[in-house]
Design brief:
Helix content: 10-25%
Shape: globular
Strand content: 15-25%
Radius of gyration: 23 Å
Number of helices: 8
Order of helices and strands: EEHEEHEEEEHEEHEEHEEHEEEEEHHEE
Distance between the termini: 65 Å
Number of domains: 2
CATH class of the largest domain: Alpha Beta
Number of strands: 21
Low-confidence stretches: 1-13, 115-123, 153-159, 217-221, 436-443
Amino acid sequence: MKPNEENDKKGQKKSLPIFPTGKVIAFLKKTAAKGDNRTFAIDPFDRQRVVVANQKIVLLKNPPETDDLVIKCQRLVNKQIEEAKLNVRVLRRSPCNPELVLLEADGLHFVVNETGSFQVTPADGLDWQTPEGLASNVVHLHPDQQTPPPTRDDDDGTLPPVRDPFQPLTEYWLEKARQHNDSFSGAPVVAIFDSGIDVIVYHWNREPNLPARYPAGSDVRACPLWYNNKPPTCTTLGTDRVGWNFVNYQRFAPGTCADPFDDNANAKHGTRIAAIIAKETAWNVRIMSLKTHDYRGVGEHFDIFCALEYVLHRSDVRVINASWGHYGASIPLMETYLCKLADNNIWLIASAGNRNDFGTGTPTQIGEPGVPASFHYPACYSTRPGMKVITVTTVSKDPSLPAERRQNRFENYSNVFVDVAVAAGDDGKFAESLGTNPAAAGLMAPRLSGSSYATAYFTGRVAFHLFNRGADSQKSDIVNALTRIDPNLGDVLGGRYCEAERPALAPAG
């Protein structure tokens, strides 16, 4: 029997999923921008995962200053190696928690897995906060189809030109964010961990159902961003006005705001996610954009952990949209952070992954028993005690069937790990979220596919629910209040689903 096959209950051969890590690495190499010198590799401890080569992450206890830290980390790492000695460097430290450290050395990703084999003695003067010791810097991808955004429309002549992605937002746009934040100071704050947000590509003022508190004819644009009018969230950050760019913040001028600009030109993934959430809440929301994914939609665990540290330093975030993930084994350090989120009453809404993730063109049952490669994280944390994770997928609709029985499997599924399905069109796709009437501007309206967008629909509704019902709601209360049951939908826990295209909520006036 081939290594990727096993016998099913009927004695027939069944193909097991193998994540195409080699193809992913080839793609990352081919599409690397000039100056992007990162090297990616198959994780030697789990071949379903892609990692940044030569790097490891560690969460320390009371670390010393950088120079002494380098010496101690080098000593500890080299204790595990009998032949070679690595020149360990501290590549980065979290701007919100200096105990979260990214280490680099040639071949470091081969050293020590997440099982806790890294032994530390008091004489070393260094200790870990978590039992796994060093963690791989696993890569997360946006699994969705790369659908280019609509062509930019400048017919009103008032929008500033496209800006340098490493320059802070102009005062023009910061003022619009401040005005929205002030007008909706009691609205829920939703943190989006994604490729950022492009306030120019999304024409907020084109929306026909803007809240009444935006006066008609005024220059106030509905740019529903969270705005920080207080001191920086973390002492080592610059002025975090509308969020933070954890991918590129070191390329901004010192002391300036590292704005989370969406440079994902092929999809504007983060901007589309933000647009869906804005509409689902009728703009009664404040979007905190935290850029954790780069120009290709590639996110690293270290940047995601840094963004989690940022959120944990605040008291106003109640929901995080996580439209990304990785296959293979769980990372214990991520489990540690998700428990911290739950302790702070913060929900993480995760996508289940998509039908072509394994190159088969068919959806995968995530978390299938006996198939380690099928586990998709953070989606498969949805059943973990002590975590607040809701996992979302997409289903298509069969218009020939009654409304309560027309939902069909489209993206990844599981009647254990997937809590909610969002019903898209009969083609399994959603309407373009960047603008409401692109045809009026002579534009073709692309259709969006992917559980990422389903996740955004449900994130908006969860935020609205918590705003109206209270932040202490239990998962069952949230899901039951926001969904219906299709008795034929066995691919989702309890057959729970909701419609994507529903009547818009009445904007707050």
